[in-house]
Hints:
Layout lengths: L58 H4 L19 H4 L2 H4 L4 H26 L12 E5 L15 E5 L38 H7 L18 H8 L10 H55 L2 H8 L7 H35 L6 H6 L3 H7 L53 H14 L48 H10 L1
Antiparallel strand pairs: 1-2
Helix pairs in contact: 7-8, 7-9
Amino acid sequence: PPYLRRKGWVPRRAEDFGDGGAFPEIHVAQYPLDMGKGSTGGKQQLAISVNEKGEINYDAVVKQGQNKDRVVHSDHGALVPKVDRLSKEALARPDEEDVEKTVAETAAALERVVQGKLSSVNPTKLPGGPGGSTLIKYTPAQQGAQYASGAGQRIIKMQDLPVDPLEPPKFRHVKVPRGPGSPPVPVLHSPPRPLTVKDQQDWKIPPSISNWKNPKGYTIPLDKRLAADGRGLQQTQINDKFAALSEALFTAEAKAREAITMRASIQKELALKEKNKRETELRNLAMQARMERQGAPGAGAGAGGLPPPPPLAGRVAARERRRRDEIREERRRERERERRLEAANQGGAKKSKITRDRERDISEKVALGMANVGGGGEVQYDQRLFNQDAGMQSGFGADDSYNAYDKPLFADRGSHLFKASRATADDDEDAGGAAAGGDAGPRTERFKPDKGFQGAPGAGGGRGGGGRLEFERQQAEEADPFGLDQFLSEVKGG
């Protein structure tokens, strides 16, 4: 169809294109003159092949493509064992000509393998070294029959001569003295002038004084040490960036404080708005509950312009009222507990935490991390340092006194040891005096037991505690358990 009349028309055949190309205004796949079009997909036919028996080989259909190198058994003969398939013709020996041909092919194959191994082990050609020869071909400028027999080009072989590494040097290396350099730059001096006192002081170099060694033992003044130190010769220069950094920090702090103040004010305003909104809601709920309690649900809507309360408003108001009552009761219990703690503190009982922390001294506060070191102008002292009985004289004494130890090492060592009473000591003294010839008779009170027992003489009482320890000799075991001594004595007496 002509141009502008091709709506709905799609070229499909080669005759639709004529002698021209594709139509760009038609957006379909087009193949003018079958250019770019794939194969037509015709039937693929295989050539007929026959096997060794002259029969058609149908295995070609299966062994095409990827299966061409595979062994395919497609006839009944593949199921017959090889022994049964053997025939006389297959078992016949080859003739001499076939044997010689096979031997020659085998020998040639083995020779190729052996030669390949030998050529890799023993190379006949050495690799070229860096000092090998180089052929250079050039065309000389002088041309003519009289030059090089009329040759137009020449070839030169360049090769490095071998150098003996052990050969001594052929030339002697002599160091030539360096030549004179450029003349020095003249130094222009100012005219001489008289030396002043200030110049002398400026040019005065202080002697080197060590801060560690003084072998002569001289007494060196401090000003001389400082002068020898050299610190006066250094000028301290502070970088201007420190001031810039301080100013930047100050500005950043001011901006941060301003931002924090603004944020706090905004949060405060939001909290106030939320509080007012909450109070308004609670007030409305309370009014609705009051109106419900009075039994006039329509009065509130007429007076305050509020809609009639929903049924849920009464439960919400009751829940809010219970929550406020719980908060009031909790605060009342806290106040009662504080009051009881204060009363117990007045009576000498256990102190409350606030009172106990208030009465701590400065050392305990520092140890517990509660001391306010920077606050308060009053100086605080440890009260345990005051009112001490021992002063400067506690560690000093007379020259002949020995009070290196102010208290015994084991104070309760003698509490459980035996200690004789005064009455026992008096008894010992009286006994000693009587033995020396005194008139006093023997006293036997000390031989009475301290503690009596029933059935024994003197069971009614004793001397009481505090006396010496008394021991009783244990009765010796019977020497004659069988009664032989008694028997012999009866016989002799009898």
